[in-house]
Every structure is written in C-alpha cells, then in structure tokens.
Design goal:
Layout (H helix, E strand, L loop, with lengths): L6 E6 L3 H12 L3 E7 L10 H4 L13 H6 L4 E4 L6 H9 L3 E4 L11 H13 L2 E4 L6 H9 L5 E12 L6 H4 L16 H5 L2 H13 L5 E11 L3 E2 L4 E2 L4 E12 L2 E11 L4 E2 L8 E9 L2 E5 L12 H18 L1 H6 L3 E3 L17
Parallel strand pairs: 1-2, 1-3, 3-4, 4-5, 5-15, 6-11
Antiparallel strand pairs: 6-13, 7-10, 7-12, 8-9, 10-11, 13-14
Helix pairs in contact: 1-10, 4-5, 6-9
Length: 354
C-alpha cells in the first residue's frame, strides 16, 4: 500500500524551539517543509537549514505572510515565545490549521481573544491545537494514567527543575524572575506568567468529565542572596530567583486537579528550595492510586559540548508534541482542539530507516 503524501507545513519562527522543529520536520518523511516565517529582519532571505543548524533545504525564510498562506499548507507549526492572536486569526481564517507550542492549551487565558480564534476557525474551516512538554504532554500522561482507575479522587502533576541554565528571560520575567522580592506587583506575577497551566487544569478536568467551580493559583517566591550572572542577564541580590506556582481546579471546596511547578536558579537561594527530582512526579489518587516518575536523559549518540547544547533536549521536547499532532489536527473538525478531542497522537516518521 503506497504511503500517503506528506503533510505540507510552514514553520513559524526559528528561535530555540523553532530550530528543533525544523530539524524534526526535515527528518520526518510524513512532513514536508514548504515555507518558513522569519520574525527577525536579519533572517529574511536566508536558507532555513542554515538558520537551524542543518544542511541547506532550498527554502528561504520570509516575512511575507500572504506569500506563505498562498502556498496553501496543511498546517502552520507555530513556535514563537508568545502567541499573537491577530497573527493566528489571519492564518486560521485563510483555512490553514495551526499546531502551537506558544502557551496555548485551551485558550481560556486569552479571554475575548479566544472567541476571535474560534470565529477564525469557523471562517476558515481550520483547527487550532496547542501543546508543549509542560504544560501539555505532562497532562496527557496524567490523563492516560487515570485510565486504569474506576475512581479518581485527585490528579496531581509536580514539576521541579533547576533552571539556572535555561536562558529565556522573555518568558521567565513575566513569572517574577529578576523582580525585587519586595515589589508590590510580585504576588500576582506567577499567576500571570504561568496562566497556561490554568488552561491545563481545565484540560484535565474536562478529561475527567467534571465542571470546575474555580481555578486558582497559589504562588511562592525565593530570592538570591548574591548577584546571579546567567549569561544573557543578571538577577541582582534581593531579587527573585525561585518561583513556585500551584494551579488548582476545585469542585466545591475540594481540589480535584493540581498542577505544581517549582523552578530555582543558582546556589544562593533563600529559602534554599531543594529540588528532589528533575522532571515530573504524576500521581492519580483513586482506585488504584497510580504514581509515575518521569525523567529525561540524552541518548548515547547525543553530542554536546556546552550547557546550551544540552538545552536542545528541552527544545526538542517542546517542539515534538505539536509536530506529532499534525495528522490528527488536519483531520479534526474546525475549532479549538485539545488532546481530549483528538485520537491518540502518534510519533509517525520518527524511526530512522537507515
């Protein structure tokens, strides 16, 4: 039986996650890269392979959105640090599906902009899907784990990591990193900067078939007692170098979904939070109670000389869930789709055949 034609995709941006995305697309026989959007003017006109650290692919990056939409791709792989609703509306209204890693799970944090996305999907007959490694894939693991239970009392996902070498101030500052521990605006920053985890709470609750009465966030912060040089930026003494957020979904006064993150930077944290695991602990309290410990290691053939090289694994894990959902998203009805709406997303085309 002949293989179906590959899905024609346009890559949107070539930052850290976008580079990993392009590398995976080019290596995957089920996908065909047909275009690439460049956010930075200095990338326009350059070969996408060159921008992403691989051999030239014969496609030049462009900032001409009309030209990219005229290619009539099956899907845009959307990997900016933060989503732009007007951009998404333009793509979806043109009838092009979108898979995104840019802080999107259900879209509820966007408020009225979520309605704009839904309307664009209806106009274009297109589908919008968002996931990353966390939130996104982590919650999918929790949902699947609960499938062996005949009673679920609570689902908890705990994430903890030393993020000293994670260099992304544009996404970390909104959560409170680098802000004075005495800043009056600090208490609400973690909720704002991690709001996509609130969407993930809704995803899990929807999988359980429960209607939440409230979704709330409780936050803690820790300061560095010395200036912390992180390479591209510095966190000054007395400023936040540790952020913890607990997103909780409640039915009545009972927490049924809890997603916890705890991130620290540097050795001079006060209080000195201990990171017991680097990864996730997923627990389903119910009958039976299920516990998963999830960690990540480089494969034997992985080559890395710097910390930045090792960070590529994180970018890969963020890029892969949207890519592996493309087939299901293209086949889905118009609208916003989550893991609950799609069949099991499959890693087709990821096994090297030679």
């Amino acid at each position: 039986m002949p293989a179906p034609p590959p899905f024609r995709v346009v890559q949107w941006t070539t930052g850290n996650v976008g580079k990993s995305s392009v590398q995976a697309i080019v290596a995957n026989p089920t996908l065909e890269l047909v275009g690439c959007y460049a956010w930075s003017a200095d990338k326009v006109g350059r070969d996408v392979g060159e921008l992403c650290g691989i051999e030239p692919v014969g496609i030049a990056a462009t900032d001409d959105i009309d030209a990219l939409l005229a290619l009539e791709p099956d899907c845009v792989v959307y990997n900016p640090q933060w989503s732009d609703t007007s951009e998404l509306v333009r793509i979806l209204s043109a009838g092009v599906n979108v898979v995104s890693s840019a802080a999107f799970v259900t879209g509820h944090r966007l408020g009225p902009d979520r309605d704009r996305i839904v309307e664009a999907c209806e106009r274009g007959g297109s589908t919008m899907f968002g996931s990353g490694v966390s939130p996104g894939f982590a919650e999918l693991l929790a949902i699947v784990s609960a499938s062996i239970c005949d009673r679920v009392d609570k689902i908890t996902v705990n994430e903890a990591a030393d993020t000293t070498f994670y260099d992304s101030p544009a996404t970390e500052r909104p959560a409170g990193f680098g802000v004075s521990i005495d800043d009056p605006d600090l208490p609400g920053m973690a909720a704002e900067g991690t709001a996509v985890f609130g969407e993930a709470v809704r995803l899990v609750a929807d999988a359980l078939g429960v209607e939440l009465d409230d979704v709330r966030c409780e936050a803690e912060y820790a300061q560095t007692t010395e200036d912390l040089d992180l390479g591209s930026w510095t966190i000054a003494k007395g400023c936040v170098a540790g952020v913890a957020a607990s997103w909780q979904g409640l039915v009545g006064d009972r927490v049924v979904v809890e997603l916890n993150v705890r991130w620290r930077k540097g050795p001079t944290l006060e209080p000195d939070w201990k990171i017991e695991q680097d990864g996730w602990v997923i627990q389903i309290d119910g009958r039976p109670t299920v516990t998963l410990n999830v960690g990540f290691l480089p494969p034997p053939y992985f080559e890395a000389e710097t910390i930045a090289d090792f960070m590529v694994l994180g970018h890969t894990m963020t890029a892969a869930p949207p890519l592996n959902a493309i087939a299901a998203v293209v086949a889905a009805p118009p609208g916003i789709a989550t893991y609950n709406d799609l069949p099991l997303t499959l890693p087709r085309g990821t096994v090297p055949l030679r």
